[in-house]
Amino acid sequence: MSTAETAAPALTTSLAKADFLTDYRLAWESRHASLAGRKEVFMGKAKFGIFGDGKEVPQLAMARAFQNGDFRAGYYRDQTFMAAIGQLTWEQYFAQLYANPDVEAEPATAGRAMNGHFATRMLDEDGNLTDLAHSKNSSADISPTAGQMPRLLGMAYASKLFRQNPELHQFDTLSTNGNEVAFGTIGNASTSEGMFFEALNAAGVLQVPMLVSVWDDHYGISVPAEYQTTKQSISEIMMGLQREGEGQSGFEIYVVRGWDYAGLVDTYQRAAAVCREQHVPVLIHVTELTQPQGHSTSGSHERYKSKDRLGWEEAHDCLHKLREWLLAEGHATEMELDEIEKTAAATIKAARTAAWAAFFDPIKAERDEAVALLDKLVADTGTENTMHELVEQLKSNPTPIRADIVRTLRRALRQVRNEKKSFGRRSVQRHLEQLLAENADRYNSNLFSQSELAVGNIEEVAATYAADAPVVDGREVLQACFDANFQRDPKIFAIGEDVGKIGDVNQAFAGLQDKFGELRVTDTGIRECTIVGQGIGAALRGLRPITEIQYLDYLLYAIQILSDDLACLQYRTKGGQKAPLIVRTRGHRLEGVWHSGSPMQMILGSIRGIHVCVPRNMVQAAGFYNTLLRSDEPALVIECLNGYRLKEKTPSNIGEFTLPLGRPEVLLAGTDVTVVTYGSMCRIVMDAAKQLADVGISVEVIDVQTLLPFDTDHLIADSLQKTNRVVFADEDVPGGGTAFMLQHVLDEQQAYRFLDSQPRCLAAQPHRPAYSSDGDYFSKPNAEDVFDTVYELMSEVKPGQFPEIY
Length: 806
Known about the structure:
By secondary structure, the chain is an alpha/beta fold. 42% of the residues lie in helices and 11% in strands.
């Protein structure tokens, strides 16, 4: 099928006049919401605006194909669609524009994301999944272009698993036999991103019910299609994905004009049916769309569009075309449509007014309460002259925000710091503390799960060993752990490069595909970003994926989606959605620039909201997996590359014992110096500790085990009270993981109080490790480096006992 042959026919879907007029009303309500939103930004009542004007009609058609159980991963212009499926009211729309932090008023993000970022609440008050199979669902939007595509793939993949794996049929609140379609939307310019191509290729390989709509208005901000897309048409260049016939692999591709209501409705009905029934992915290229207000409130499209283009856009505005069609087909009269447009404008005005009152009235009340307390403080302290201007500024501010209130209270207390304590001063202090606590909930809460399945609530179960416990390769410990967990929970599955047939490159999944089948232990292509996205989407839908990134250095391919999507999911929905994905990878010591990395600085700085486990051996890794697979929080587990062939005893409760996150372990007790480390460095530090003991230096070795969370019980500070000296050692670049650990211990744990010597950091060289054993030795800390660093500390204290070596 060529794109020229895919023009949609006249409307054949059975719709009545009431349906047409409902769509017309929603379309105009959405348009008025866009127009009003832009004005609100320019009036200073909102910071920024990006709107869905020009995309209303195709979104109405898409909404008519969207059923209970379906999921959306979208684009920040989908306001019409969200309203049409009943998951967005216009008051909620304006509440998000104003950044109302009340989750009841703005349930998508509680004011945490700028407008146009939609989501449905998939969790109940206890943090448990709701009945997703019988509701219309939208995953939480993100701004990075094409960032919705990896997650979209995963949501569609979940439908395949729910349909094809009989063990999952029991979970009828998560799926109805895999009949759900994952609807994705994206702007035409964003299809230039690699994630778009990667996700479409993967969907074609997997044959999953993923329906992607490309809203094509010819521009990406100011850049026209000729600079964006080969042939200026994403459908033209993707035609190689078109399947050759029913039963063949590939995509169905449709092209339809964005102002053709009849064609759009029919196209979406046909496309969704193919997608839903046959699990064939679909691409719908919606062309000839307009953007009446330009890209956003940050600029005007008159600056870069020609007069001819602007004239064409006015003539082809989808709302004007819809009106023409309704009149031409005899579905409505001029008077009826005029009344609908008038009523739509009034509806939006009322919604905007109500949303502003709901947002601003509580702030005004907080301001008035603060002013009353400050007036009392002035009366108590006699500081009229110095505080009068401060209080008047707050009192006369017509549109204060909460920061204005807190800022004024803090500055007022600063001015009376030399005054005696009074009732007024104590009242202001208490009120400030209350406001800070309330705003911490509004703006800083829900980075992690608040449910009973949060990591901290998982019961700790110690590993037990039989007298004749088998001593095996570390990989066999992991294999036994995964085997036990797969038997325990049918929702668990694993995907990744080489994970399936050969059981991963280090064989921790060896034999498990034969035992549990291809649906649960699955090979993927080389596509790290969408491997992670596949896991995010499936986890959102209630499954328990383990996604493997073959080497830690390759995490860079996926770090953006981990950071912008997974890490902030619970936060940006204020506990409305969760995706307890486990990302499994391996790194640290080995050989070569790209197979021995420890980029902890990058990881720690970019994925707050994801736990980071750095086990020193495979028994510890198994304990973390057992904990995480019972929890509902995401995690990255970094195994030691050089640990798979090392011998370890196998616990008798291999699938049951759990390790708490955030609790270090003392590997060796000592009295002179504390060395804090993790992962493969543990063995090196232990080797150095033995050598140091030979010269009379007693080293306490602590394995932190997890970096996020980090030493929640302050065990390291306790150690420093005893040794008064510390070395932080890891394989990251200088200023990376060692600096992270040092800041936690000295700053947060305030362990600087116990130090008698300068704290030392021992890191790798500021470059990737060179190849060969010599490259490893000279690139990363070795036992001699550890020995020398600790020895130098003791030499400063007791030079007579420990004279200089060099």
